Amino acid sequence: MSVQNRIALVTGSGSGSGLGETIAMMLSQNGARVVVNDLEQAKVDKVVEKIKSAGGEAMGVAADISKKDQVQGLVQQIVKQYEAIDILVNNASIARDNDLLKITEEDWDIVLNVNLKGPFLLSQAVVPYMKELKFGRIINIASRDYLGWPTQANYASSKGGLVSLSRTLALELAKHQITVNCIAPGLIKTPLYDALPEDIKENLMQLQPSRDIGKPEDIGYGVLFFADDEADYLTGQTIFICGGKSVLSSLSV
Amino acid sequence: MQIKGRVALITGSASGMGRGTAEVMAQHGVKIVINDVDQSKVDEVVKGIKEAGGEAMGVVADITNKAEVEAMFKQVVDTYGRIDILVNNAGIFRDKAFLKMTEEDWDKVLDVDLKGVFLCSQEAVKYMREQAHGRIINISSRAWLGGPGQANYSAAKAGVVALTRTLALELGRRGITVNCIPPGLIETPLWYALTDAVRERLRKAQPMGRIGSPRDIARAVMFFASDEAGYINGQTMYVCGGKSLFANIS
């Protein structure tokens, strides 16, 4: 697998983010130059520092990816520094779970804006550079929950939209040597999971075909696979990394 | 990617995608078992891998014959002590318009393309269960979504997808993962057997304007087969340059 010297932007990869931080670290360990992005400068700086002290190359940009002007500023900074963007990992994501009748308009808007509009804005901002270099890898981190999950009307819809966006962009960009793929993680040991009460964790574990929970590295492995220089014939795909749980949901091919 | 030293059996690996996959995996230090029905072709592939510095053995066996399948796995385990990876790649087709398809056309294709996967998986799992480690990768086809003239082939390949999902659920707790790759158009001897006009028409229908190589399939097989892929189970991933997206249930 090679991502050597590639410039990779990972959204939501600040310190304590779980998935994003691990993805950034793994890309760096495999030779990519990584752009760390999150809302808070301090969290961004921490991961940049971690990458540099491990001998990798990184820059950090704090930006809200749901805001068009901030996305443009983010991409301009990257291009100014590295003159290209090869890999975009749309990882930033938030949840505001609630019963349908309790989801406020604000809960809906913020989840949709971060989880779906953000990837749209970022893809639009980086694709001109990818087209020019005739190389690009966009990897969207959706969720197994896009298949539907109670209390996630907003979250599941945003992730379902992300799968659909991946497929559409894959078709539109195929002739420009830009691939667009999607990873739908299942249960993963992140700070969010750790914060759950023990009885809920036990219930979730019982539903796992593997009786096992994934690690952030399992997702990082999927990202590396799609980001690879050689993954040029793979596009438009959605792979669940979920220990087989998606198979219990009927549509998850 | 950690895969070095693992033992992999690839059915139908004397030519085409199977052969390509075997050769790439051998370059990554996997001990390869070449299986096919023609001894001289099997020998040729084994010889090629060894000359390139890899490790391989060949077993001629008909995967639709239970006794031959049992003997094949016994021979593998006797030689290498284990079986880590099974790639169910062997496949045939007998394309015909529906009403012209004979019962023999149906049986032959279903036997090789689906029953062979069942028999090989059952035998491999006996050993994988004891090792508490196994990776089964089934090569289906984008045609499982349906293709005119392929009533037998598409039904068999759809069966492979369903078998993958069922085995994934049954075996997930035993450290065995089961995943599926439906290839799109790939440069194989079969592709070159088509007329230029047909090839041009097919190529134009590809979102990327080109077709894939056996190497693309090999990469995906290794992705599922590696040690790091333990949490990936029951999945069907197309390697087709995006063509699957035009079919509505992909």
Beta-strand percent range of chain B: 5-15%
Low-confidence stretches of chain A: none
Q: What is the overall pLDDT average of chain A?
A: 94
* Total beta strand runs of chain B: 6
Q: Could you spell the SSE succession of chain A in H and E letters?
A: EHEHEHEHEHEHHHE
Q: Class by helix and strand content of chain B?
A: alpha/beta
Query: What count of domains describes the coordinates of chain B?
Result: 1
Put the structure in a nutshell.
The complex is a heterodimer of chains A (253) and B (250). Chain A has 8 helices and 7 strands; from the N terminus they run E-H-E-H-E-H-E-H-E-H-E-H-H-H-E.
Describe this structure in words.
The complex is a heterodimer of chains A (253) and B (250). Chain A is an alpha/beta fold and 253 residues long. Chain A has eight helices and seven strands, in the order E-H-E-H-E-H-E-H-E-H-E-H-H-H-E. In chain A, helix 1 (19-29) links the parallel strand 1 (7-10) and strand 2. Chain B is of the alpha/beta class. Chain B has a single domain (7-243), classed as NAD(P)-binding Rossmann-like Domain (Rossmann fold, 3-Layer(aba) Sandwich), CATH 3.40.50.720. Chain B has a six-stranded parallel β-sheet with strand order 3-2-1-4-5-6, sandwiched between helices. In chain B, strand 1, helix 1 (16-27) and strand 2 (31-36) form a beta-alpha-beta unit. Chain B is globular and about 50 Å long. Chain A binds chain B through residues 1, 167, 170-171, 174-175, 186, 208-212, 214-215, 217-218, 221-222, 225, 228, 230-237, 239-244, 246-248, 253, and chain B through 1, 161, 165, 168-169, 172-173, 177, 207-209, 212-213, 215-216, 219-220, 223, 228-242, 244-246, 249-250.
